[in-house]
Amino acid sequence: MSNDRIERDITIAATVDRVWEVLTTPEHVGTWFGTGRPIEIDLRPGGEMVLDHGANGRYRTVFVEVDPPRRLSYRWAEGYPNTLANEMNSTLVEFTITPLSENETRLAVVESGFSTLVVPEGREWVSYEGHSRGWSDVLAKAAAYAERRDSTPIMSAQ
Fold first, then answer.
1. Which residues contact 148 (CB under 8 A, 6 or more apart)?
2. What is the pLDDT of residue 123?
3. Which helix (H) or strand (E) is 48 found in, with range?
4. Strand order in the sheet with 58-67
5. How far is CA 33 from CA 4, 37, 118, 157, in A?
6. 83: domain range?
7. Phi-psi region of 82 (alpha: psi -120 to 50; beta: other; left: phi over 0)
8. Is there a domain that residue 151 lies in?
């Protein structure tokens, strides 16, 4: 088994358009994947999204692919808060949105690039193991949010 690539998916009781909106709208991303405050998003290839993870830092991601409402990918340098993600300091996060029925959607995420990632001391959660555990929780939170069952932030603002 490779420690370079994490693959997770979840079925969400929501339309493809709702799932896309949850993945790409500042107030939505700021809640299910942040502290509850809207985040900065320039939704285009090469555009920046700033993820706010409270005490863990703010992360300047860079969009690689934006193909509404089916595919979204970005580089994420979680080991390096406040530093723009690039191919040397980040992993690649890829979301694929697939309709299963009119009101049911499969959301898949793949995060890759761990085998060459240098993780700074004191940020050990930025590892294959840490993210492997984390994506299951994050996808469950995104699903609950998209289904309007849970609108609380995933993390504390402090």
1. none
2. 81
3. strand 48-52
4. 5-12, 104-112, 91-101, 71-76, 58-67, 48-52, 40-41
5. 22, 10, 23, 12
6. 5-146
7. left
8. no
Q: What 8-state DSSP symbol labels residue 55?
A: G
In a domain, 154, yes or no: no
Please give the C-alpha separations between residue 93 and each of 65, 84, 113, 157, in angstroms, as whole numbers: 10, 15, 9, 23
Cis peptide bond upstream of 69, omega within 30: yes
Using only C-alpha atoms, the chain has a radius of gyration, in whole angstroms, of: 15
Query: Cα(42)–Cα(44) distance, rounded to whole angstroms?
Result: 6
Q: What is the CATH number of the domain that holds 17?
A: 3.30.530.20
Query: How far is 80 from 70, CA to CA, in rounded Å?
Result: 29
With 0.85 as the threshold, say if the pTM is over it: yes
Q: Is 117 helix (H, G, I), strand (E, B) or coil?
A: coil
Where do runs of H (alpha helix) occur along 6-151? 16-24, 26-32, 128-146
> Would residue 124 count as lying in a domain?
yes
The structural domain count of the chain equals: 1
Residue 125 lies in a domain: yes
In this predicted model, what pLDDT tens digit does every residue of 99-157 receive, in sequence order?
A: 999 999 999 999 999 999 888 888 877 888 888 888 999 999 999 999 999 999 988 66
